[in-house]
């Protein structure tokens, strides 16, 4: 009797009847939910992430665009979404121009 039920269940399964155990469920993969580092485009895991400029970075990837100095989260400036150290890089590239880079003598001669 048991073998008859098992045989009929096996035949119906082969014909395309679905069982909840046999169906593959579409689960979101971890890679879809993991943020990507803006510099290296690799996944940033929770234990290694540094959040800055609204993005998650690897600590060694959060570097100044000009001098490549490693930056701390929040201890730097940004321009066009790229990190720069406050002094001297950001000040020299985007700050006031002229002799002394700021202060009373920061005018340009024509």
TrEMBL record:
<dbReference type="GO" id="GO:0010468">
    <property type="term" value="P:regulation of gene expression"/>
</dbReference>
<dbReference type="GO" id="GO:0008630">
    <property type="term" value="P:intrinsic apoptotic signaling pathway in response to DNA damage"/>
</dbReference>
<dbReference type="GO" id="GO:0008270">
    <property type="term" value="F:zinc ion binding"/>
</dbReference>
<dbReference type="Pfam" id="PF00412">
    <property type="entry name" value="LIM"/>
</dbReference>
<protein>
    <submittedName>
        <fullName>Cysteine rich protein 1</fullName>
    </submittedName>
</protein>
<keyword id="KW-0440">LIM domain</keyword>
<keyword id="KW-0479">Metal-binding</keyword>
<keyword id="KW-0677">Repeat</keyword>
<feature type="domain" description="LIM zinc-binding">
    <location>
        <begin position="35"/>
        <end position="96"/>
    </location>
</feature>
<dbReference type="InterPro" id="IPR001781">
    <property type="entry name" value="Znf_LIM"/>
</dbReference>
<keyword id="KW-0862">Zinc</keyword>
<feature type="region of interest" description="Disordered">
    <location>
        <begin position="1"/>
        <end position="36"/>
    </location>
</feature>
<feature type="compositionally biased region" description="Basic and acidic residues">
    <location>
        <begin position="20"/>
        <end position="30"/>
    </location>
</feature>
């Amino acid at each position: 009797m048991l073998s008859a039920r098992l045989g009929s269940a096996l035949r119906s399964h082969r014909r395309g009847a679905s069982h909840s155990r046999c169906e593959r469920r579409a689960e979101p993969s971890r890679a879809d939910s993991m943020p990507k580092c803006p510099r290296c485009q690799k996944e940033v895991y929770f234990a290694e992430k540094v959040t800055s400029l609204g993005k998650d970075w690897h600590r060694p990837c959060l570097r100044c665009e000009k001098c490549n100095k490693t930056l701390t989260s929040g201890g730097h400036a940004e321009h066009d979404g790229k990190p720069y150290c406050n002094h001297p890089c950001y000040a020299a590239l985007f700050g006031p121009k002229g002799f002394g880079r700021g202060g009373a003598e920061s005018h340009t001669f024509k």
